[in-house]
Amino acid sequence: MNPVLLFLALAVVFAFIIVGMSIRIIRPFEKGLVERLGKYQRLLEPGLNLIAPFFDTVIKVDMREVVLDVPPQLVITRDNVGVEVDAIVYAQVTDPVRSRYEIANYIIAATKLAQTNLRNVIGELDLDSCLSSRDEINGQLRDVLDTATDKWGVKVNRVELQRIDPPRDITEAMSRQMKAEREKRATILSAEAFKQAEITKAEGYKLSQILEAEGDAEAVRKTADAEKYRQLTVAQGEAEAINSVFTAIHNGKPDEKLITLKYLEMLPRLADNKANKIFLPYEASGIISSLAAMVEGIKPNGTPEKKEPAPEPMEAIS
Questions:
Q1: Is the pLDDT of residue 248 over 80?
Q2: In 3-state terms, the chain is what percent helix, strand and coil (to 5)?
Q3: In 166-308, where does DSSP find H-type helix?
Q4: Are 41 and 23 in contact (CB under 8 A)?
Q5: Is residue 184 one of the residues assigned to a domain?
Q6: Comparison of pLDDT for 93 and 21, the residue scoring more
Q7: 165 close to 84: Cβ distance less than 8 angstroms
Q8: Dist CA 95 CA 153 (whole Å)
Q9: Which of 12, 52, 118, 318 is the most exposed place for a label (fewest CB within 10 A)?
Q10: Above 80 in pLDDT, residue 296?
Q11: DSSP-derived 3-state class of residue 23
C-alpha cells in the first residue's frame, strides 16, 4: 500500500475525530458548562458550540422545572395532634453554574429541606388552622425554601400540600361536630321559616280583618243612606199630603175623604198611647159618619141610603 495514501487516510480519520470532539450540541432546555483541565471556563447556550478537544469537558444542566415529591411524615401540631402530611415542591434551576458547583444534588437537598420546614410550619399551627389554612402554609413553605435554595441557583416556584390526615378518632370527632353544626343550622333555618310563616299569616289575617271591617262600614253607610232616602221620601210624601189638606181647608173646599184618611192614619198612633183616656177632636163624629157612608155606599135596590143624624160630639171617651 502506498504510504502517502495511508497517511492521507489516517489524516482524514484524525480530522473527523477532532471535529467530532470539537462540536457540542446543546438542546433548547439545557445549558452547557465547559471545564478546561478541571477549571470552569464558560457557559454554552443552546445550539451548536465549538470546544477545544482533549482539553475541554462539557457538563449539561437541565433548566426545566422539576417536581420533587416530599415523602409523608408524621407532624405534631401546636395542640399536640399528630397528623400525617406530604407535599409536592416545584423547583427550577436558574443558575446552572451555582447549581453545579454550590450543591452536590439540589434535588435531594430541596426535598430534605422541604421535610424539615414542613414540620416547623405545621408545628406552629393548631389542627383547625392546618386544615383551613392550606394556602398560607403553602406560601410560608415556598418563601422559606426559595430563600434557602437561592444560593444554589435553584428557585422554588410552588409548594402544594397533598394531604393532611388527622388520626381516626379526631376525624370521627370532627365528623360528629360537623353533623351537629349542620343540624343546628337546619333547626335555626326551620325556626326562622316558621317564624316568617306565622308573621305572614298574622299580617294576612290582619289585612282580612281590616278589609272585612271596611266592608261592614261601607255596608252600614249604604244601608243608612238607603234608610235616609226612604225616610226623606216618606216625609216628603206626608208633607205633600198635609199641604194638600191644609190648602183645601183654607180654600173652603176640604176633601172629606182625604181628611177622613188622615184621621184614620192617626188612630194607630193614638192607640199606642198607654193612657186610659183618649181625646178625639170635635170633627171626629163627622169624620166617622163620612167613613160609614163611604163603607156602606148605596143600598142594593139602587136607592140611596138614608143617613142617620150624626150623634152629638163628645169631648172625651174614657
A1: no
A2: 55, 20, 20
A3: 168-250, 256-271, 284-296
A4: no
A5: yes
A6: 93
A7: yes
A8: 4
A9: 318
A10: no
A11: strand
**Nearest to residue 32, comparing CAs of 65, 61, 63?**
61
**Amino acid at site 105:** N
- Domain containing 100 — which CATH number? 3.30.479.30
Cell numbers for 142:
415556598
* C-alpha–C-alpha distance, residues 246 and 259, integer Å: 10
Residue 312 above 90 pLDDT? no
CA distance 120 to 137: 11
Residue 247 shares a structural domain with residue 270: no
27 and 93 fall within a common domain: no
Rounded Cα distance, 288 and 299, in Å: 19
Question: How is residue 144 written as a grid cell?
Answer: 422559606
End position of a domain, from candidates 166, 190, 218: 166
**Contact in structure between 100 and 154 (CB atoms under 8 Å):** no
Q: Which three cell numbers stand for residue 217?
A: 262600614
Question: How many structural domains is the chain composed of?
Answer: 4
Domain boundary among 116, 149, 166: 166
Residue 245 in grid coordinates: 189638606
Residue of 217, 59, 78 whose CA lies nearest to 137: 78
Q: What is the pLDDT of residue 228?
A: 86
* Whole-angstrom distance, CA of residue 182 vs CA of residue 153: 50
Which residues constitute the domain of residue 268? 255-317
Average pLDDT for 292-304: 49
- Report residue 275 as a C-alpha cell: 193612657
Q: Does a structural domain hold residue 7?
A: no
- The Cβ of residue 256 has, within 10 Å, a number of other Cβ atoms equal to 15
- For residue 8, the SS3 value is helix
Scanning the structure block, which residue is given the C-alpha cell 454554552? 44
- Residue 23, CA distances (Å) to 9, 35, 56 in order: 22, 15, 11
Distance CA 113, CA 121 (A): 12
Taking the model in full, what pTM does it have?
A: 0.55
